[in-house]
Amino acid sequence: MNISLRNVTKRFGQVTAIQDLNLEIGTGVFALLGPNGAGKTTMMKMLVGLLAPTSGQILVDGISLDSKQNIEKVRHIINYLPQEFGLYPSLKVAEELDYFAQLRGHQDFKRRTALIERLLNVVGLQEKKYVKVSTLSGGMRQRLGLPLLY
Questions:
Q1: Which residues of 42-61 are buried (b: 16+ CB within 10 A; e: fewer)?
Q2: pTM score, whole prediction
Q3: d(CA 111, CA 125)
Q4: Long-range interactions of 19-22: CB distance < 8 A, separation 24+
Q5: Which of 33, 109, 122, 140 sits between 20 and 30 A of 81, alpha carbons compared?
């Protein structure tokens, strides 16, 4: 996957969050680090079409984020998991995954159970499947959020 930001600026009223950002991100792992207020979240929201840039162009695998149709295409390529997202703290880990699997249309119990087992193994939470979400560490909650993207 290739991501290209060309002269991207984002303003909120009189406040400029990002100004004339030029960035090329190629295949591989990319870390986005910076101090609070540097524009990291704003940039991520623009990359997935949640925010439109004030000016400039964003391309994901050559698809410009300039229309709803293109944004939908890009959302099949790239996902965004914010630091805080909605989980149900009173549910157990497996129940949380089961709930979201049902919301995604996985109605067959046996298939859904197999899917949940695979997901628990992928994110390394198999040993926590009967633990309440509220007791998980922040990192474990982030891992639990990964399957929710699919």
A1: bbbebbbbebebeebebbbe
A2: 0.64
A3: 19
A4: 20/56, 21/56
A5: 109
Tokens of 134: 């509220």
pLDDT of residue 30: 82
Residue ranges in the chain whose pLDDT is less than 50: none
96 alpha-carbon distance from chain centroid = 17
SS3 label, residue 146 = helix
Q: What is the pLDDT of residue 100?
A: 86
CA distances from 39 to 24, 34, 45, 116 (A): 16, 8, 10, 35
At 149 the pLDDT is 64
Give the C-alpha separation, 111 to 82, whole Å: 29
pLDDT attached to residue 92 = 96
